[in-house]
Amino acid sequence: GDYDNDGDLDLFVTNSENQKNFLFRNDGNFNFTRILNDPIVNENGYYACSGWGDYDNDGDLDMFVTQAYGPSSAPLLNHLYKNLLVETGTASFEKITNDIIVNDAGFSYGFAWADWDADGDLDLFTARTFNENENNAAYLNNGNSNKWIIIKLSGASATYRSPISSKVKVKAVLNGNPVWLVRTVEGQSGYCGQNMDLHFGLGNTAVIDSIIVEWPSNNTEVYTGVQVNQIIRIVEGSGIIGINNPGNEVPEGFLLYQNYPNPFNPETSIKFTVPSALKNSNLTLKIYDINGKAVKELFNKKFETGNYEYVWNSGNYPSGIYFYQISNSDFSITKKMVLVK
Fold this sequence. Notes:
- With 341 residues, the protein is mainly beta.
- It has one helix at residues 85-88; strands at residues 11-13, 22-26, 32-35, 47-53, 62-67, 79-83, 93-96, 108-114, 123-128, 137-139, 147-154, 167-174, 177-184, 198-203, 207-214, 220-227, 230-235, 239-244, 255-256, 267-274, 281-288, 294-303, 306-313, 320-327, 332-339.
- The radius of gyration is 23 Å and the shape is elongated.
């Protein structure tokens, strides 16, 4: 993982048998420097697996390390190290000691970061085997207000259908400074763990400047002006084909219908139903292109209870896949439509 946000991949190595772990910083040109004085490498332990993840969505990679199979029957504690790069400007780590994930003792031989509740932050699952009779553990991240994006990839051909070995670079602005964040899709992310969704914490980034996808087929694709706080799917050669903006549960009775006609040229109708629970609630309807960039706002106003219909005239917009999304401060619904000229 690129823990110092300089664009190249650094290396963390876990060691067992009461040894210290290793951290190697990539200095470029295939040269590495071993980090010798940092909390992340200063403590002996019986470490089993490790994994990078931006659990606080601040824009730098943190590290979770498990322990298992010590010399006695005593359970062991896992370790979480918070990266201080965004806060201090220096890529160093602070050991977190007051969270349940580092005080729940056992033998954790495997784990995975994953946003299983689709709210934009990384949750944690550990595979445990203390005395060969221990329940696994799942920990829900309560999150914060920092921005994020999750990217799911699919290759175009049968040969490269799996996105493994793809590299994605996201250009964010963290505290006013442009930074390239790098993730790779791996077949295994730490011992006995895997998650091929790419999660990026974005701190206070307002909008993503650029996303670059480098596919195993050697194709490279670029997307610009992408909105934050969404889950997107990118298919090689087809662009962004799915957008999901997680929020609170959609109010009962609210309906957003599929546009008609679809495909369309040049006009299409978008119908929706506003229930009494949303009476006088402010709603926004926006059109997004395949890059996730907002290209048109059809309305931003309050509605009475009832059924409504709006017509979008595509005008000079080119053929392609578009998304229409109705949202307010608590929820959003997105659907896909196709413009064919």
